[in-house]
Amino acid sequence: MKLYNTLSKKVEEFVPFHEREVRMYTCGPTVYNYAHIGNLRTYIFEDILQKGLEYLGYDVKRAMNITDVGHLTSDGDTGNDKMLEGAKREGKDVFEIAQFYTEAFFKDMEKLNIKVPTIIGKASDYIDTYIEMISKMLEDDYAYISNGNVYFDISKAKDYYKLSGKNADDLFVGVRDSVSLDVHKKNPADFVLWFTVSKFENQILKWDSPWGVGYPGWHIECSGISYKLLGEYLDIHCGGVDNIFPHHTNEIAQSEAFLGHKWCNYWCHGAHLNDKSGKMSKSNGEFLTLTLLQEKGYSPLDYRYFCLNSHYRNTLEFSYESLDSAKKALEKLKNKVKSLDDTLMIEREKMTKYIDKFKESFENDINTSLMLTTLYDVLKADDINDTTKLCIIKDFDKVLSLDLEINCEKEIDSKLEEEILKKIEQRNEAKKNKDYELADSIRDELLSLGVRLIDKREETTYEII
């Protein structure tokens, strides 16, 4: 398995801390509004990564946060509080907003066939963990208190800019509001670990802390939840490319300061979904949600198929024309699959080469377009019968999750049963003639096709395995 690692800027062999166990953390939503389809593209790529690793035989333990504590609208410590904005917009309190949009997010996940992570952590449930981590960072001189707030001192972090590839001179160039001009910081890129003083006087979600009543900075949430739910060592951390700096950069700095060792080995980032006006966002152009696409006549899986045709690290441009093409292609694919004859003997020994090719495509840095190409290769193959094709495609759909509606393990129909009974009769005749070599070869032939013979005193029966 090879993955592009943002940390090293190259494709690397994937080697987890524990041989067949993967601990994976994916940044979750801030639940102040619906997720737009650009957000959902990232969750689709993370879903393929998890299912693909499981397909290869790894045990994946995945955690994801739900940010229900004030998340600032910029990537730094400036801007407006997203949760308060949502509450003000809809005339509800922040608890109602968080509950409503959390439920909406998981409905979108279900529609897109995205597997819910093993563990979900609400940011507001881990305040004690954040306090524990911040206290240790203060004790070890990685953090300092200024004007009532606790800041992380980036000058103490080793290789602070390694993930992003930036340097201190880049901070004010082309990075939207990522550095606050807070005069109380030692360094411009220092970030808040805990607020007791902020411009949000009406902030509802506040907690007692050793530094006064306040609330956590948003970077500490993912570090705290990951540490609490997945332990001190993380194999893979995922998110969108806009999380690289400063969010993931700050996660590394504070997590490794707290833990005292390297925290996460592989950082995987999905590229943006753009429309013709630029990067998709909730404030830029038409607010594209999954529900809106459904209202326009598209299935959520049309959008999933659209995303799978592009590599997760390539910027993808959305247009309704492109989605129309994906919709037609998926419909054609499903009709082709439905037309296959499901009554034939399964040629299990012929499945391996196609499954290996599918695995290789996934192992090649999650190359979903090659995975789809392999599926179409199966459909066009002339060396395997239709029922075998159905079984292979059903196997692929464990990862692709396009609802190809295949059941190649249905009750044996009369045509297939007739073929099996004919083979059993030939075997019985061979045994009667003491041709045990032929009898064994017939038994082995049926076994390779997924039919196990059961010899009883009175007769020979069979079962499908």
Write the layout of secondary structure elements.
Blueprint: E1 2-5, E2 10-13, E3 21-26, H1 37-55, E4 59-66, H2 82-90, H3 94-111, E5 119-122, H4 127-139, E6 143-146, E7 149-152, E8 191-195, E9 215-216, H5 218-230, E10 234-240, H6 244-259, E11 264-270, E12 273-275, E13 278-279, H7 290-295, H8 300-308, E14 316-317, H9 320-338, H10 352-363, H11 368-380, H12 386-400, H13 414-432, H14 436-448, E15 451-455, E16 460-464
Parallel strand pairs: 3-4, 3-10, 4-5, 10-11, 12-14
Antiparallel strand pairs: 1-2, 6-7, 7-8, 8-9, 12-13, 15-16
Helix pairs in contact: 2-3, 4-6, 5-6, 8-9, 10-11, 11-12, 13-14
| CATH architectural group of the largest domain | 3-Layer(aba) Sandwich
Order of secondary-structure elements: EEEHEHHEHEEEEHEHEEEHHEHHHHHHEE
State the separation between the terminal residues, measured CA to CA.
30 Å
Given as residue ranges, the uncertain stretches (5+ residues, pLDDT < 50) are 71-78, 174-178
Spatial strand sequence of the major β-sheet: 5-4-3-10-11
Percentage beta strand: 15-25%
The CATH class of the largest domain is: Alpha Beta
CATH homolog superfamily of the largest domain? HUPs
CATH topology name of the largest domain, in short, is: Rossmann fold
From the alpha carbons, calculate the radius of gyration and give it in angstroms: 27 Å
Number of helices: 14
